[in-house]
Amino acid sequence: MLTLVGVAIVILGFALRLNPLLVVVAAAIATGLAAGIDIVTIVSDFGRSFTQNRYMALVWLTLPVIGMLEKNGLKERAQALIAKVGAATTGRVLMLYMLIRQLTASLGLTSFGGHAQMVRPLVAPMAEAAAENRHGELPQETRDLIRAHAAAADNIGLFYGEDIFIAIGSVLLIKAYLDQAGYPLTPLQIALWAIPTAISAYLIHAFRLWLLDRRLKAELGIKP
Amino acid sequence: MNVLDAIYLLLGLMFSAAAWLNLRDHSNPKHLKRALFWALYAVTFLFGTWLPPFLVGCLAIGMALLAGIGGLGKGGAPEPTEQERMEGAARLRNRLFIPALLIPLVTVLGTVLLQDFQPGGHPLVELKDATLVALGASVVVALVAGLWMLRQPFRVPLTESRRLVDAVGPVLALPQLLAVLGAIFAVSGVGQVVAGLVGKFIPVESALAVVVAYCVGMALFTVVMGNAFAAFPVMTAGIGLPLIAKLHGGDVAIMGAIGMLAGYSGTLMTPLAANFNIVPAALLELPDQNGVIKVQIPTGLALLVVNTLLMYFLVFRF
Predict the structure, then answer these.
(1) A114 backbone φψ class: left, alpha, beta (φ>0; ψ -120 to 50)
(2) Maximum distance among all alpha carbons in chain B?
(3) Contact list, A20 vs chain B (CB under 8 Å)
């Protein structure tokens, strides 16, 4: 039971809004100590794992390009483009993006999208601009809500698309685990059963985006 | 040094630039701390492959202490002016999209090429690294194209990346730290304890109760671990295989596929999946770090119900 001390630290730390970096480091050290590992080994394991997981930071390499494009008006251009499409609404822009994200992910193209590369410079500004065109000047809370929805559309499209592809990490993990447990399966058998959920995910979230459009209209009215 | 190390070197240089620009930024009273934070992070990319793990561990813990105690102040990078942005948009028009779209396009093309092009049967890079190398290459291509098309001096990408790095802040390193935490949870056996606890409270003779326990367990465990991949082996060994497959004769492929997807509901709802939930909130400059999670919770819960029902109606039929 003592090994759960790290879980408790994480839950408490995040609930109290303490600095997340500090919470995670404290939880890691406490868990290691509770499991009877000595502190030097814990710090070494920590360092080894930190180095192994550097790949998670690679997405930040896009920032110099994105920043330079932003300085030269990428967001403004994305907004101007959407302004020309009369039928564009926030919900429809995000439904379309989620569809593209989910379809490409289901073909294994999971890097076609992402928060730094696509959502911040292109998708979120387009979703905001669509709302501006329809409803006029937006209050800051509405902007924040639309941005949060843009990030969510990327996540949901990715999560429920990638599992249909047979050579994706999650499918291979399921296969590898069930193989060693004595249930040999092909990746296709597993990927097939992700399809009903993928369709449900799209329909459910698209419905919520439709509700978002209705809410924007009710709160802000239509610009004359 | 392999290709991936070279790409980490680029990342190290980017964070070094952020450290240097912060060092000279006297508008932030804590500019030394902020500069030191990015400098430590830069070191782990520049030399991480060759440094002893204990030292890297100390650097990472140092970063957490710097960020956690007293904060890093406000990075004072100048925002691009409206005039700059409007002029650029008017001058470059839709050409601005080309470098932005080069990133995903070259990444996707590069991944496919690196995986399929194997002269003499030897891949150019390790297959598991193909996407990462392709992403690195795509950024170089987009950067060169951008510098050339936009006629920008080379310092612009550096000052602009510093602006964005400071806008996201220390949270930028959180996904990596959480992956470390997951590894330490795994070696300490946290999963087995949680599965044991869940297993104690299920009425095993009811097929519905077992399916609910497995799906909800996957989601809950993912919320705690921040990662459905960590939850899957534990819940499947604890509930899935012994109760759904063996006791009630459920189909293993359906159980595995839908079980993992039930875990994704947890991913949508937890701050511990920082790269999907907390980092985008910082990137989009939301005032509430849980802003993205709040938007995702209704969809996450609805999909958990859908997945539980799908499993219940499918798993015993095939």
Answers:
(1) left
(2) 71
(3) 171, 174, 271, 274, 278
Could you tell me the two tokens for B223?
Answer: 């919320």
Q: What angle do CA B300, A110, A106 make, to 5 degrees?
A: 70
Please judge whether B60 and A37 are an interchain contact, meaning their C-beta atoms are less than 8 angstroms apart: no
Alpha helices in chain A (DSSP H): 5-15, 20-34, 39-52, 63-71, 74-83, 90-106, 124-135, 140-162, 169-180, 187-192, 195-220
Task: Kindly report the pTM of this predicted structure.
Answer: 0.90
**What is the per-residue pLDDT across A92-134, written as a single tens digit (0 to 9) for each?**
999 999 999 999 999 888 888 899 999 999 999 999 999 999 9
Q: What is the 3-state secondary structure (H, E, C) of B72-120?
A: CCCCCCCCCCHHHHHHHHHHHHHHHHHHHHHHHHHHHHHHHHHHHCCHH
Segments of chain A scoring below 70 in pLDDT:
1
Which residue among B8, B44, B164 places its CB closest to the CB of A63? B164
Q: Which of B193, B16, B134 is nearest to A6 (CA)?
A: B193
Per the CB < 8 A criterion, the answer to whether B170 and B67 are in contact is: yes
Q: What is the ipTM of this complex?
A: 0.91
CA–CA dist B165, B210 (Å, integer): 46
Of A158, A160, A224, the closest CA to residue A194 belongs to A160
Select from B164, B193, B299 the Cβ nearest to the Cβ of A208.
B299
- Written as six digits, the tokens of A117 are 């590369």
Specify whether the CB–CB gap between A124 and A113 falls below 8 A: no
Q: State how far Cα A189 lies from the chain centre.
A: 26
- The minimum CA-CA distance between A222 and chain B, rounded to whole Å, is 24
Cα A149 to Cα A9, A47, A95, A115, A145: the distances in Å are 30, 35, 10, 12, 6
3-state secondary structure of A30: helix
Whether B306 sits inside 8 A of A6 (CB atoms) is no
**Type and span of the H or E element at B10:** helix B3-23
B223: Cβ–Cβ under 8 A, 6 or more apart, which residues? B266, B269, B270, B272
CB atoms within 10 A of CB B119: 7
d(CA B288, CA B265): 21
